[in-house]
Specification:
Helix content: 10-25%
CATH class: Alpha Beta
Strand content: 35-45%
Shape: globular
CATH topology: Thiol Ester Dehydrase, Chain A
Number of helices: 3
CATH architecture: Roll
CATH superfamily: Hotdog Thioesterase
Largest sheet: 5 strands, antiparallel
Oligomer: single chain
Structural class: alpha+beta
Order of helices and strands: EHHEEEEH
Number of strands: 5
Distance between the termini: 27 Å
Radius of gyration: 16 Å
Strand order of the largest sheet: 1-3-4-5-2
Length: 128
């Protein structure tokens, strides 16, 4: 955790597939990039941006999203996501996230993740 610093940025790109659609997710009836898929893409971008700064055996888990999906994006379009670590409060990490397609911003907001020890986390889950 000592290596984590405010300002760490992440960037991912992908092509929207039919499995990313609102129809496929069950969140709607149309074949456009779904809100749940966009949020998962944002979470993935944030997670990957800090993973290299964590000690072996540690990762982050998402706990909160405050996201606006601003515009529909068709299947087969290219999208990208940017994340920026904007606050560190102990093990709690706050990211600003933004997603774009070829025409501009399609989503933005904030995402909270917590740093966890994977072994301890899984042991705690198994005892429930």
């Amino acid at each position: 955790m000592d290596k984590l610093k405010i300002g760490i940025e992440g960037f991912l790109e992908k092509t929207v597939l039919s499995c990313d659609s609102a129809k496929a997710y069950g969140s709607g009836l149309v074949d456009v990039f779904s809100t749940p898929a966009m949020i998962a893409f944002m979470e993935n971008t944030a997670q990957q941006s800090v993973q290299e700064y964590l000690s072996e055996g540690f990762t982050t888990v998402g706990t909160e999203v405050n996201i606006k999906h601003l515009k529909a994006t068709p299947i087969n379009a290219r999208v990208n996501c940017k994340s920026k670590l904007v606050n560190i409060d102990g093990k709690k990490l706050l990211f600003e996230v933004q997603a774009f397609d070829e025409e501009g911003m399609i989503g933005s907001g904030f995402h909270t993740r917590f740093v966890i020890n994977m072994d301890k986390f899984m042991k705690n889950i198994q005892t429930k």
